[in-house]
Amino acid sequence: QVQLVESGGGLVQAGGSLRLSCAASGRTFSSYNMGWFRQAPGKAREFVEAISWRGAPTVYADSGEGRFTISRDNAKHTVYLQMSSLKPEDTAVYLCAAVGRPYSVSLDSRSQRYDYWGQGTQVTVSS
Fold first, then answer.
1. Mean of pLDDT over the chain
2. Three-class HEC string of 77-104
3. CA angle, 54 as apex, 53 and 60 as ends, to 5°?
4. Is residue 7 within 8 Å of 121, Cβ to Cβ?
5. How far is CA 92 from CA 27, 52, 58, in A?
């Protein structure tokens, strides 16, 4: 069982930056692929980025290309999402998730492939 707690969200002006953190419990964190998703009001959950249990490779959605970067620190049981050049359309609840199968080879953008989810952190970008 893995518990995930996100932090770092907030209100930021367009063009600003935020770094989200996701702290995980459990000794097996370092064996799980991790992902960030987001969900805006009235919209479906959307994939943002994912990272291998080893720290590389990563995959990202077109919406964050060149602006968002996922990383992880296995010693701290934490995964990060660095976001820059934020736009109002980035406003959403951001959730981190873990794939329950250890040492998965391939990264996945489908939310149904993730077994553990945090509660999310709100990111609001004002214009």
1. 95
2. CEEEEEECCCCHHHCEEEEEEECCCCCC
3. 70
4. yes
5. 30, 24, 22
Distance spanning both ends of the chain, measured CA to CA: 40
As a whole number of Å, the CA-based R_g of the chain is 13
Cβ pair 94, 81 in contact under 8 A: yes
Among 109, 118, 91, which Cα is nearest to 18's? 91
Q: Please determine, for residue 28, whether its predicted confidence score (pLDDT) is greater than 90.
A: no
Whether the bond between 57 and the residue before it is cis, its omega within 30 degrees of 0, is yes
Tokens of 9: 């969200």
pLDDT computed for residue 81 by the predictor: 98
Distance CA 126, CA 90 (A): 10
Instruction: Look at residues 94, 66, 65, 90 and name the one whose alpha carbon lies nearest to residue 80.
Output: 94
Averaged pLDDT, 51-57: 94
Q: pLDDT tens, 78-109? A: 999 999 999 999 999 999 999 989 999 999 99
Q: Return the half-sphere exposure (C-beta side, CA atoms, 13 A cut-off) of residue 11.
A: 2
